[in-house]
Amino acid sequence: MILNSLMGLFSLDMGIDLGTCNTLVCVRGQGIVLNEPSVVAVKKGTNRVLKNGNAVGVVAKEMLGKTPGTITAIRPLMDGVIADFDITEAMLGYFIRKVHGRRSFVMPRVVIAVPSGITAVEKRAVHNSAERAGARRVYLVPEPKAAAIGAGLPVAEPRASMIIDIGGGTTEVAILSLADISVCESIRVAGDDMDEAIISYMKRTYNLMIGPQMAERIKIEIGSAAELEQELTMDVRGRDMISGLPRKTVISSEEVRESLKEPVGLIVDAVIRTLEKAEPELAADLVEDGICLAGGGALVRGLDKVIGQTTGLNVRLADDPLACVARGTSVFLENLNEWKDTLESNEDEM
After folding, report:
1. Phi, psi (rounded to 5 degrees) for 197
2. Which of 30, 213, 223, 349 has the greatest number of beta carbons closer than 10 A?
3. pLDDT of the residue at 51
4. What is the pLDDT of residue 281?
5. Which of 290, 268, 273, 325 is nearest to 159 (CA)?
6. Residue spans per domain, the chain
7. Which CATH number fits domain 2-38+75-145+324-349: 3.30.420.40, 3.40.50.9100, 3.30.70.270, 3.90.550.10?
8. Are 285 and 261 contacting, i.e. CB atoms less than 8 angstroms apart?
9. Pairing of strands 71-74, 40-43
């Protein structure tokens, strides 16, 4: 115990929001120090990460859909969980080394946020990846809990706090009270599904094949879940599915809204199911306190309005919603000795 305490003093401990689209890393006492896409460039047909320094993160994301025949850009997490163990390990190792550097001779303790609905096998994969990437101790915290704390909700109080965290691979809907999750719904429908819905719409309506990066741009620039005061338009470029030649067209925010109806509807359904399972006293608190939205998917215009109209509750967007989960892991780091008994960890196995 004394040795662990001493190691804790010298360790550069970090919290990691291991997201399907982006990975954020925060360091105890410093806040968020890294925010990069969860993308890795590898030799095609292998799991060997390119040896140059640009094989992970921002530059690797720019390669998506544009790589030559010898290189593949891969997102090793799908639906919020590890899809490729070796590449996730390489990515985590890169991020840990980039943040840790040589500032400490003791490897870090790491708090990682994971979807609440993942299986024991998937949790084990996260533990193993982080350990092999260089972590001394690994603690797992449910994403909705981290998001609620990072959004500044009073989760420790004996009253309901409701969070909807819409990431790239999963949407987490949870009601928390007394520092724990009371009711939770985790669905594998989120930002990536919105992108896929836009891609499908462009194929179906315009016979135009677009890539995931163009779909994401459309979602960010003109995507909406509710009517806008002033509708928007955007030039979209891709490959004509009939002629095979490059082509561009103009689409409107009304069309994008139509394409997003299904994923948005599934998210709203998850919110309704969560509210239906809440205890009456918790539900009563939400009439006053409402719902908080976090995650990148929460930035879709009008999503708060749609959820508010469906539930009859006030819905607000968290400050800096993209960083809520990472900020939550930072709080766990700052209070690790108090919180670690409530987290799933590999400590007992060491």
Report:
1. -65, -40
2. 223
3. 66
4. 95
5. 290
6. 2-38+75-145+324-349, 154-189+262-321, 191-259
7. 3.30.420.40
8. no
9. antiparallel
